[in-house]
Each structure stands twice: as C-alpha cells, then as structure tokens.
Design goal:
7-stranded mixed β-sheet
C-alpha cells in the first residue's frame, strides 16, 4: 500500500509500505480521509519521543471496512485502543486506560495510508449523507467536546450563562468554541496569533475573535471558563491571568511542559485547573450525533489535499500558510 511516512525531523515521505495484517477482533479499513493533527506536527518537528521515525502518523480517520465482521460499513475510527478490562475502562474512562495505545504511536502504525487495521469496537458508523472528509473531524471535535463536558461539570453556572475564552483557533480550539455555542454559551472569545485562522474563526460566527499579540486581550479576572487548546507556557499564563476567582481552566493542548502555572492564584482564588485528554466512547458518539444534526455548524473549515501531497501540507502547516483549521488528506 501507499503511505505517508515520517522518516525524521521535518521529513515525511510518500512511499510503499507493507499492508497491515488483521488480528483477532480487528477489521481492515480502507482510509478515505485523514486529518493532520497538532500531535502529528509535534512529531514532524521531532519533538515527540513517543513517535520515533520511521512511523506512519495520522489518527483522525474515516473510511470503509474491507475485511472483518464489519465489512461494508462506512466508519469513523476512534484511534484510542484500550484494554477493556481495567478499572478505568470498566468505569467508562477508556482515555485513561494504563494499557491504552493510539494509532500513529508505537507500536501501532497510523492512518496516513491506504489501509489500517483496528479493533471493530473502535468503529462508529458514519451517518448517511455525511461526507468522509467531514466525518474525519469527529476525533478532534470529540477532544473538544470532552473538554467542554469537564468544564460544565466544574462550572458554578450553566454554560449558557458563562463568559468563555478559547485559546487557539486550530481544529480543537475552533471546535471547542462551536461546542460551547451549541450549549447555549453566548459570550465566547477566541484568541489566535495566525491572521488566516482568525479569519476562518470569524466566518463561523462563534464570538469575538482577537489577536493575543496586538490585543486587546480579555480583562484580568474576567472569564468564567477558559479552554486552553494550545498548551504552552504562554497560554497557561494567559489562561490563569484571565480566569476569574472561582473559575475554571481546562487544559487540552500539549505544545510544551514549560512554566505558566500561577499556583498561588489557583490556591488563593480556588481556580479549578483541569487536564483534559482525548475522550470517552460516549463523547465520540455524541460528537458524531452533533455533527449530523447540525449543532456544530457547516463544518466547512477544512481543506482537502491528496495524501501524495502530504509533505507540502505539513510544510504549509509548519509555516502557518493555510487558513484552514484542519487539512484533510485523501488517499484516493
């Protein structure tokens, strides 16, 4: 099969790779669409020890089953493979399974390829009429939905009443704003340093879009719920500066693990600072349903390119040269 393979820092090569072998309980999925994630970019730059070269990256995928008991189904893939029997799995928190694996991370190859093997339990049917490229957005949107669910559990007031801030206008950040809006939140601010992404976010009418560099930025101690979809020292600092006493910060991004935590403010002002990692299967199914019923808008903030031109897509994302919140690669 053809695949886009990460071979070293800032290098991905479109080449022939061995076809995947289907194990017990698995299906073989022919990939129709797969998105480039921020974690793929992190690996591309050589910053992820969990993704050593050579490796097929990519975990935001949709396609159709060509081998296995689910043969013939159009599906979106939950890329997180859990053990299914530990206490966390049995409680529904599969994202925290200590034995979890994710496609695009050793030992599992990813979905920047023509085919992938995956357990059948990780497949969700694509609703009739939904385009495969949009279906591939389920994974990043589920990540955002999970974060918003955590915020709703912690917030002192319903989300329809809060003042919210989202840092980052990529797929997860924009999706978080869309999910907040679907929960009735009327006061949303979204900050991104890339003018092209700000223009894309403005077109979705999710709220007030601003440049964190030139400002004006949100007032200090003014925000009820902050979603940090970047996860850098700079955005952690901005999150904790903006959040009000008793407010909530949900940290999704994994850009770096450097400074930015004002532990004194967290303690003295009883700030809830929550880490948010991926999603549960309940989140994933809820995401697909919300996408289908139109609750998250037109989902037209993607750009489609052939998988064979994936190297150029990675370069454009690295340079911030695309307005799309998500580039989706199509093997065919």
């Amino acid at each position: 099969m053809k695949a886009l393979v990460y071979t070293g820092p800032e290098t991905v090569v479109y080449r022939d790779e061995t076809d995947p072998q289907v194990g017990d309980g698995e299906c073989l999925v022919k990939i129709d669409a797969v998105g480039i994630c921020g974690s793929d970019m992190h690996a591309f730059k050589g910053h992820d020890q969990r993704r050593p070269a050579p490796l097929i990256l990519g975990h935001e995928a949709s396609g159709f089953v060509i081998e296995g008991s689910a043969k013939g189904r159009r599906v979106v893939i939950n890329p997180l493979v859990n053990c299914g029997h530990c206490p966390l799995c049995l409680s529904g928190r599969i994202n925290l399974c200590p034995n979890r694996e994710i496609i695009s991370m050793q030992p599992r190859q990813g979905a920047f390829a023509e085919m992938i093997n995956i357990p059948e339990r990780n497949l969700i049917d694509i609703p009739s009429g939904m385009d495969s490229a949009k279906a591939a957005l389920a994974e990043p949107i589920a990540t955002a939905l999970h974060a918003v669910v955590l915020a709703a559990k912690t917030s002192e007031r319903p989300l329809c009443e809060v003042k919210a801030l989202v840092l980052g206008g990529g797929a997860v950040g924009l999706a978080a704003a869309l999910v907040l809006r679907s929960h009735g939140c009327k006061q949303i601010q979204l900050g991104d340093t890339n003018p092209l992404r700000r223009k894309t976010a403005e077109a979705q009418a999710v709220g007030e879009i601003y440049d964190p560099i030139s400002g004006p930025v949100p007032d200090e101690n003014s925000i009820d719920v902050v979603i940090d979809a970047v996860g850098s020292g700079v955005t952690r600092t901005a999150s904790l500066k903006a959040v009000r006493p008793g407010g909530t910060v949900v940290h999704i991004g994994l850009q770096d693990s450097k400074d930015g935590i004002d532990i004194r403010k967290i303690t003295l002002q009883e700030i809830a600072f929550i880490g948010s990692y991926t999603y549960s299967m309940v989140d994933f199914r809820a995401t697909v349903a919300a996408m289908q019923n139109g609750a998250l808008g037109r989902l037209d903030w993607i750009e489609e390119r052939p998988l064979s031109e994936g190297a150029a897509a990675f370069e454009d994302l690295s340079k911030g040269a695309t307005a799309a919140a998500k580039i989706v690669l199509r093997p065919s």
